[in-house]
Amino acid sequence: MSSSLKQINTATKLVRSYNLISEQMDKRRLNILLKSLEAVIDNDIEGDVVEFGCFIGTTSLFLRRMLDELNSSKTLHVYDSFVGLPDKTIEDASVAGSEFKAGELKASKRSLIRNFKKAGLRIPKIHKSWFRDLKPKDLPDVIAFGFIDGDFYNSIVDSLELVWPRLSVGGQLVVDDFMSSNLPGVTRAISDFFIGSDVKIEHRNNLAIVYK
Ligand SMILES: C[S@@+](CC[C@H](N)C(=O)[O-])C[C@H]1O[C@@H](n2cnc3c(N)ncnc32)[C@H](O)[C@@H]1O
User: Fold this and answer.
1) What is the pLDDT of residues 42-91, one digit of tens each?
2) Measuring from each residue's beta carbon to the nearest atom of ligand 1, which residues come in under 6 Å?
3) How far is the C-alpha of 205 from the C-alpha of 207, rounded, in Å?
4) Where do the DSSP E strands lie in 39-102?
5) pLDDT (tens digit, 9 = 90+) per residue, 131-141?
6) Residue 146: in which H helix or E strand, if any?
7) What is the pTM of this model?
8) Structural domains for the chain
9) Centre of ligand 1 from the C-alpha of residue 58, in Å
């Protein structure tokens, strides 16, 4: 089997086999995200896997399943305030107006753990904190793959500042809500963070895939 066919099959198999537990992710985006993770693992890129903004674990469950499916020893680290979104800033102003307020998307750490147990999956390393307050010890020294899903400008910039310097060459970052008119801070954060650099950024189905 060619490696590209294998990639399609593993991601697609997982996406088809399990239900999504919230509307925070859809199957098309999930398929793209998992293919990206699989490529990183197939290429033996050094480092662990991180998710910034894990909520109840909709996507985290699939990241774990992909690692298990590929017998990967990479550790999955997930990060969230577990008190919901922070305040918006001017960069997040959008036609959606009052949508996405501080405190929305609040999930408890316990609900995340419950969802992993229910799925029969190993519990990830869970970090409860505002992203900006995380210390170097809270992050793996080397990261192979990151999923960033913090919705707001400062949340994305804070995540990129933590993840990008630790990302291995050959690693990939996937950022949700890229080019979303409801969450304009995401696209602004990415363009401000990478301004002047020649990093390759692909846009697929409201995801940015950033290659190092
Ligand atoms: C869109 S939800 C994430 C959905 C999740 N990836 C999933 O698949 O279910 C955004 C999450 O990011 C968290 N978040 C946003 N900004 C944050 C910040 N600056 N620090 C910590 N958590 C943050 C929120 O608490 C919320 O749970």
Assistant:
1) 999 999 999 999 999 999 999 999 999 999 999 999 999 999 999 999 99
2) 22, 24-25, 53-56, 58-59, 80-81, 84-86, 105, 107, 130-131, 149-152, 155, 158
3) 5
4) 48-52, 76-80
5) 999 999 999 99
6) strand 143-148
7) 0.96
8) 30-211 (3.40.50.150)
9) 11
